[in-house]
Design a protein that fits this description.
Layout lengths: L1 H16 L2 H12 L4 E7 L5 E3 L8 H8 L14 H11 L4 E2 L4 E8 L5 E14 L5 E4 L11 E4 L8 E4 L10 E5 H4 L2 E3 L4 E9 L4 E12 L2 E7 L6 E4 L3 E3 L21 E3 L3 E6 L2 E4 L6 E3 L2
Parallel strand pairs: 3-14, 6-17, 7-11
Antiparallel strand pairs: 1-4, 2-6, 4-11, 5-10, 5-12, 8-9, 12-13, 12-14, 15-16, 16-19, 17-18
Length: 292
């Protein structure tokens, strides 16, 4: 009889007395300290990186680019050596041009309680002059994932903002909008994998940074700082020494014949880009025509 009463009270009042998901999370935290798992990478549409001054490609890397002819362009995304080359270049300090890249963070919840993300923003920010060493510029393909948010590194204190779509045809750049979390919510759920896509913009500085995620779980405020492995992320604007003219909307201005845009000029110690014979090491790289 006493046992029956205890069981009855426990089953009828249990949900009110105990927060079952919170208790389960306390137990899971003993086995898995991470509230969520994540994987992070640059989302590269092609090979487009900039090395700092005084750093150049190795002979092996240069030979690989020379052998990558225009005939192989269609198969480049399946070329297993491309990620290896990108990794090698980043390990010696290459930065990604900010107007052609975004960072993809895959997250998967490891708690029964929902994880409510309050803010995402860059931290440990260090700014220098735009990189001007070696530019590897193999034109990126269009398209890609939908960009949820953007960091504008021209701001003194960048934070996540909504994105305003650019235009690949007119050359109008992607622009930052209102603060992202003023308009959107973000929740990481147990066992579900989601991807956070963050675009970059910035016209003044090369920037190294990591990403901080502030979140709540069960009423507790926590945070996670994310880098590219143990390294910071690196982005840089093109070293543009003669900007191409743009109209009030930010579109490139067309030449008088209406066929091509009026080009600007960039300056680098070395430039690898497409030429008549495939990928070539360019001459006159301190006054090189470019959409900048």
């Amino acid at each position: 009889m006493i046992v029956a009463v205890i069981v009855t009270v426990g089953t009828t009042l249990g949900p009110d007395l105990f927060d079952i998901p919170a208790i389960q999370d306390d137990l899971r935290e003993w086995r898995d300290a991470d509230d969520f798992r994540y994987a992070v990478d640059y989302n590269d549409p092609a090979i487009q990186l900039v090395l700092p001054a005084g750093v150049d490609l190795t002979a092996k890397q240069a030979a690989y680019l020379k052998g990558w002819s225009l005939a192989r362009e269609g198969a480049r995304n399946s070329d297993e050596k491309v990620p290896d080359l990108l990794k090698e270049l980043r390990e010696i300090g290459a930065a990604t041009p900010v107007d052609v890249t975004h960072i993809a963070i895959s997250v998967e919840g490891r708690r029964r309680q929902p994880i409510h993300v309050d803010a995402i923003y860059p931290v440990q920010i260090h700014r220098t002059a735009p990189y001007s060493g070696t530019l590897v510029n193999i034109t990126p393909e269009g398209g890609g994932d939908t960009l949820q948010m953007m960091f504008n590194f021209d701001e003194i204190t960048p934070r996540a903002r909504t994105t305003i779509d650019g235009d690949d045809v007119s050359g109008a750049p992607l622009k930052p909008g209102v603060p992202y979390f003023d308009k959107h919510t973000l929740t990481i759920e147990d066992g579900k994998e989601d991807e956070i896509n963050i675009a970059m913009t910035g016209t003044r500085y090369a920037v190294s940074f990591k990403i901080r995620i502030d979140y709540r779980i069960g009423g507790q405020r926590r945070h996670q700082i994310i880098g590219y492995g143990e390294r910071p992320f690196l982005v840089t604007p093109f070293n543009c020494v003669d900007p191409a003219p743009r109209d009030k909307r930010g579109n490139f201005v067309m030449a008088k014949d209406g066929r091509d845009i009026v080009m600007g000029h960039i300056s680098y110690d070395h430039i690898w880009a497409y030429g008549r014979n495939g990928i070539e090491s360019k001459k006159n790289t301190h006054w090189f025509e470019f959409e900048c």
